[in-house]
């Protein structure tokens, strides 16, 4: 092989004797058995008078067998049998899929069937990849480089692709398949995209790990809920106030924790998030406690409500436009509100990244001591990041309140913070398009596959593990400089 | 000295609990000159720097900085980043502190942060891309290009600073400090880890800064090759005290300095290579049995 140096060593053709391979597979199977015995082997069933222990040994042995065979095939793939394995498992995978689809041969447990199909397919794909790599081992087919290449390409494409994505998002309500459910999922995804972009300012750019982001979301939601139910503000009047309120909470949190970094900061912000939730839960005079606030006014379209029978003297949306009343009209309107808010967030964060303050955030993330030596005020710079991130959460929060019509402290628990942070981390810190992809996967995925809801968390965990193994820096982590001196193609000065 | 010095350090003392790191050190640093602070490891050189640049608050002492505009600052009363912002004292670090995952050009733009912040109306003008901000940004890029040209890495301006060769990173850190338009530039061992050719390039850069940009340079350095060649004035510290000061010629012949570097029994046997390092004539004759 003539390709340069180390890059060629990629095909993992580890020569190991068969005995070794079997031993390894047996050990893996034993570990699986030990783990799965309590988890899969026994099941407690709640009967009216008592709890009964039921055994599920067939499933247990099935799982152990799958793991044994799978591990064996994997090691054999590495040992140079990639091509036959790819062929056999590939055919098996297709047949299995066909069978599952048509139901020609009955499978005793459909879920186990699907899981096995996944396992077979993974083995097949991996074997195919390994054998392909063995063939084109020359030159630039090294995995890491290849992944990086794809990421750079996607991010470059993102530049001119984003108008199309935005156009699609705008046109979505009028596409034939857009029913109420699709619109609801779209609204949910866009809410999290917006939250992800907002948190990206704090975590991705300024490098301040914030585990309590949902607190600002809650502040925004309650600000709108209280202003509208108690003082009669409408959505658009309350929106800037909610943002401002969240920003001032951001500054309030920011001040005491400015000296903290990394893990310490994460723990304090986590505590702050819980504090806000507990205050909302216990300060019943203000927040109505665990019962929450209901009857939050829905947004109106320039004063025209979306109701079938408006009160005397008020023209509702469908009357004005001469349409028949349909509940989806309001859903579409909500969809456009959150789309607008998300696009504003995107525009703002893209823009601010290229301004001095954005560069200072990134510089603070890289080296705070150097920033001080260059005369950058770390306090103000960090506080701006906190405040701006919080503002967007506040906007999203008041949207959440107006969409749900009802909020309670339960909506703002730690899991929400964790999901928003996962979206940012999974997408690749600092990557705008990465946040979109991650939000679609993490929020849209579970919504679309509700039938498999029992396995949602399993899939979520598997996805996280896979990402951490293959792309620990996130799906689309790639940083383009904010200013360029030279043409990106080569060393030609512009 | 006829003109008042750029920096006057008086009775600087820094105590960490029971440890006296800097003990009553006084010296002047003149404008348009390179003043070197040398001394064995642990002599307190970096502590002096940290006091000057606001990373430590001195226990006792006065650090008076004049500036060409005639506005004086007492650095010991100022807070960390304000020294760089208002008194315009810039520094580099012993271990390189660039922003490794930002491009070389961005490193130089971050150094112009305060000026750009004002021009961008504290972000408001910048957000709408007003001409006043765009103009300032262009100027900042031009200034960065000037310094990148100077150290010869314009072609790699858009590469992450962390991927540049070590010698380029050292010089990039120096020019990044220069982009803040300082009146006093403090360099903490800029030649550490450089080979002969690279430290030659660094010397050239420092002399250029002194002669063309007409500012004061304060330098901590172990590499006597650099110190003796380019310094106009040298202050020698040992165990936190000033033991000598003067021109390179005076310092290299000062017995106190030689003793500090080589121990008491300097007359007995001074290894030729050590003496050469310091630029002192070896006391032990070459043909000694």
Radius of gyration of chain A: 27 Å
Q: Going across the major beta sheet of chain B, what is the strand order? A: 6-7-8-3-9-10
Mean pLDDT of chain A: 83
The profile of the biggest β sheet of chain A is: 2 strands, antiparallel
Largest interface, counted by CB within 8 Å of the partner chain's CB: A-B, 33 and 49 residues
Alpha-beta classification of chain B = alpha/beta
Overall form of chain A: globular
Q: What fraction strand of chain A?
A: under 5%
CATH class of the largest domain in chain B: Alpha Beta
User: What is the number of beta strands of chain A?
Assistant: 2
- Strand pairing plus helix content of chain A: what structural class? mainly alpha
Q: Report the CATH topology name of the largest domain in chain B.
A: Rossmann fold
Could you name the CATH homologous superfamily of the largest domain in chain B?
Answer: P-loop containing nucleotide triphosphate hydrolases
Spatial order of strands in the largest sheet of chain A: 1-2
Q: Total domains of chain B, how many?
A: 2
Helix-strand string of chain B:
EEEHEEHEHHHHHEHEHEEHHH
Unreliable segments of chain B (pLDDT under 50, ≥5 consecutive)? 266-270, 282-289
Q: What is the tally of beta strands of chain B?
A: 10
The first-to-last residue Cα distance of chain A is: 39 Å
Describe this protein's structure.
The complex is a heterodimer of chains A (494) and B (289). Chain A has helices at 18-41, 57-102, 110-135, 143-171, 180-205, 214-231, 235-257, 262-282, 284-287, 317-320, 327-353, 356-366, 368-373, 378-404, 414-427, 432-448, 456-470, and strands at residues 42-46, 51-55. By secondary structure, chain A is an all-alpha fold. In chain A, strands 1-2 form a two-stranded antiparallel ribbon. In chain A, a hairpin with a 4-residue loop joins β1 (42-46) and β2 (51-55). Chain B has 289 residues and is α/β, with parallel strands linked by helices. Chain B folds into 2 domains: 1-88 and 182-252, P-loop containing nucleotide triphosphate hydrolases (Rossmann fold, 3-Layer(aba) Sandwich); 97-180, P-loop containing nucleotide triphosphate hydrolases (Rossmann fold, 3-Layer(aba) Sandwich), CATH 3.40.50. Chain B is built from 12 helices and 10 strands. In chain B, the strands form 2 sheets. Chain B has a 6-stranded mixed β-sheet with strand order 6-7-8-3-9-10, with helices on both faces. A 4-stranded antiparallel β-sheet of chain B has the order 2-1-4-5, covered by helices on one side. Chain B is globular and about 60 Å long. Mean pLDDT of chain B is 84; it is low at 266-270 and 282-289. The chains are: A mainly alpha (494), B alpha/beta (289). The A-B interface holds A 348, 351-352, 355-357, 359-360, 362-363, 366-367, 369-378, 384, 479, 481-486, 488, 491, 493 and B 53-55, 80-86, 90-93, 97-103, 105-106, 109-114, 116-117, 120, 122-123, 126-127, 137, 141, 144-145, 148, 154-158, 176-177, 180.
């Amino acid at each position: 092989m003539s390709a340069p140096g180390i890059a060629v060593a990629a095909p993992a053709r580890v020569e190991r004797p068969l005995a070794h391979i079997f031993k390894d597979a047996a050990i893996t199977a034993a570990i699986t058995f030990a783990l799965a015995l309590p988890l899969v082997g026994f099941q407690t069933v709640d009967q009216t008078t008592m709890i009964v222990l039921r055994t599920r040994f067939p499933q247990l042995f099935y799982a152990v067998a799958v793991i044994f065979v799978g591990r064996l095939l994997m090691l054999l793939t590495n040992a140079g049998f990639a091509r036959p394995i790819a062929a056999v498992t590939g055919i098996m995978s297709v047949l299995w899929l066909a069978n599952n689809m048509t139901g020609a041969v009955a499978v005793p447990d459909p879920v186990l069937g699907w899981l096995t199909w996944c396992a077979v397919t993974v083995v097949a794909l991996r074997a195919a990849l390994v054998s392909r790599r063995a063939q084109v081992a020359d030159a630039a087919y090294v995995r890491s480089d290849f992944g990086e290449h794809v990421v750079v390409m996607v991010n470059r494409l993102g530049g001119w692709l984003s108008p199309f994505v935005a156009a699609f998002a705008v046109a979505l309500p009028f596409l034939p398949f857009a029913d109420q459910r699709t619109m609801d999922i779209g609204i949910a995804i866009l809410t999290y995209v917006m939250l992800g972009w907002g948190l990206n300012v704090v975590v991705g750019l300024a490098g301040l790990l914030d585990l309590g982001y949902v607190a600002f979301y809650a502040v925004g939601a309650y600000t709108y809920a209280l202003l509208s139910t108690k003082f009669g503000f409408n959505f658009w009047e309350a929106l800037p106030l909610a943002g401002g309120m969240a920003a001032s909470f951001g500054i309030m949190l920011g001040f005491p924790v400015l000296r903290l970094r990394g893990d310490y900061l994460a723990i304090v912000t986590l505590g702050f998030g819980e504090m806000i939730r507990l205050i909302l839960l216990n300060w019943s005079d203000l927040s109505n406690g665990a019962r929450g606030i209901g009857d939050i006014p829905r947004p109106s379209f320039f004063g025209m409500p979306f109701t079938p029978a408006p009160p005397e003297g008020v023209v509702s949306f469908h009357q004005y436009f001469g349409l028949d009343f349909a509940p989806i009209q309001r859903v579409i309107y909500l969809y456009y509100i959150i789309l607008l808010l998300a696009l504003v967030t995107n525009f703002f964060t893209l823009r601010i990244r290229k301004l001095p303050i954005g560069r200072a955030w990134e510089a603070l993330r890289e080296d705070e001591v150097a920033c001080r030596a260059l005369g950058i005020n770390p306090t103000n710079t960090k506080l701006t990041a906190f405040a701006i991130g919080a503002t967007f959460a506040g906007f999203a929060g008041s949207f959440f309140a107006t969409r749900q019509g009802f909020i309670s402290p339960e909506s703002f628990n730690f899991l929400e913070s964790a999901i928003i942070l996962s979206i940012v981390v999974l997408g690749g810190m600092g990557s705008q398009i990465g946040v979109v992809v991650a939000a679609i996967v993490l929020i849209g995925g579970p919504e679309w596959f509700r039938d498999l809801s029992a396995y949602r968390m399993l899939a979520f965990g598997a996805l996280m593990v896979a990402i951490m193994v293959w792309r620990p820096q996130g799906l689309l982590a790639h940083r383009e400089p904010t200013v360029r001196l030279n043409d990106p193609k080569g060393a030609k000065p512009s | 000295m006829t003109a008042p010095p750029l920096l006057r350090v008086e009775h600087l003392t820094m105590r960490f609990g029971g440890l006296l790191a800097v003990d009553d050190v006084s010296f002047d640093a003149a404008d348009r000159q390179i003043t070197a602070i040398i001394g064995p490891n642990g002599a307190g050189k970096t502590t002096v720097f940290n006091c000057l640049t606001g990373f430590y608050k001195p226990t006792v002492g006065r650090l008076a900085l004049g500036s060409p505009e005639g506005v004086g600052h007492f650095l010991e009363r100022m807070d960390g980043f304000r020294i760089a912002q208002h008194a315009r004292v810039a520094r580099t670090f012993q271990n390189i502190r660039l922003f490794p995952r930002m491009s070389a050009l961005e490193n130089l733009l971050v150094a112009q942060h305060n000026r750009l912040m004002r021009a961008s109306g504290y972000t408001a003008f910048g957000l709408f891309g007003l001409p006043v901000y765009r103009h300032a940004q262009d100027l900042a890029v031009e200034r960065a290009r000037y310094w990148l040209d100077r150290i010869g890495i314009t072609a790699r301006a858009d590469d992450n600073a962390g991927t540049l060769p070590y010698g380029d990173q050292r010089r990039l850190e120096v020019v990044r400090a220069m982009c803040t338009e300082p009146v006093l530039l403090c360099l903490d061992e800029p030649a550490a880890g450089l080979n002969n050719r690279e430290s030659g390039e660094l010397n050239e850069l420092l002399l250029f800064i002194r002669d063309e940009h007409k500012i004061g340079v304060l330098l901590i350095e172990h590499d006597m090759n650099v110190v003796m060649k380019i310094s106009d004035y040298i202050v020698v510290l040992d165990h936190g005290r000033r033991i000598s000061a003067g021109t390179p010629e005076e310092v290299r012949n000062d017995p106190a300095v030689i003793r500090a570097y080589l121990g008491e029994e300097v007359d007995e046997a001074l290894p030729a290579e050590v003496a050469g390092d310091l630029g002192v004539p070896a006391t032990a004759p070459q043909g000694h049995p």
